[in-house]
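Quick check before the chapter quiz. The format below is the same one you will see on the exam, so make sure you can read both the input and the output lines.
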Amino acid sequence: MTTATTRFDVIDGAKGVGIIFVVFGHAWRGAQGAGIIPDTSGADGTNLFITVDTLIYAFHMPLFFLLSGLLFLEALQKHDTFSLLRGRTMRLLWPMALWTWLFFGIKLLAGSEANAPVTVSDFPLVPLPPFEHLWFLWALFLIQIGLVLAYRLGGTNIPPMTLRWVAGIGALALALINPYLSVPSLIWGPMVAHMPYFLLGITAGGYLNWRPNIAFTALSIAAFVALLWMVGGQKASVLHSLALVTAGWIFLLGALRPSALLRVLCVLGQGSMAIYLTHTIFSAALRIVMLKFNIDDLTLVLTATTLVGLIVPLAVLAVVRRLRLTKLLGF
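Here is the expected output.
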């Protein structure tokens, strides 16, 4: 029998997997910005940086949108509209604004050592468009607020399972028409592009008790690898990423069983917001120090900056929890 604890462990474990790729992805891009990754373009035009970058970004942020949608319908049913709007504002908008200003201040202090230096005149008094990786919080806020209002206007009397299937159909429809949608705005574009994954999460939330057998789990990871191989060095379409994240989630449902590995992933998953908000500070700082000492081996830099980006934010989170400042800092 699948317990509520097991369901939450799987979600936290999946967040742990996702945040590892988030930190590595930014460490990878940081290494490129610092000139550490060699230009290894082959005769077929493939490029090491672009290939790895497109592979990671084909699935890791779609996975986080899916995970964010898993328990969303339960939240809609449990809380009133005001509580939901206030909660999303404090959980998503406040950390986006706060860490935009903090990041800017840190970049300003870093001066020319930063990959993308800034000046005082660049200060983002209004934190829009979202600053660097904080776009995720803004897109998630818009998606959730829109769905809260839609649910209150016409969804309260519809059976939950019907709503889940409507969300799944909507996810597929939006993925199919996405190539024909032109939303270049940094304000609205990420919301439109990532809505299908969140809707898919709402659908998948109705099947959290399902545990695929070994054969189905193996089939899902084989499908994931095949779909990932098909990405190559090209940006994946929304439909392709939707298929990727579906296969990946089925694999995680089947593979994340009680173990020491799951416990580690759950720790990372439970601290994923703190890691997401702060990891680039510590990764970038370590990369700058390593380069100052002429340590520019790609494997060493990537390993060190990824580990620091995962571990140090967890230490910060532990201190912040003891000081009871988690809400203030958006963790």
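If your answer matched, good. The chain has a mean pLDDT of 92.
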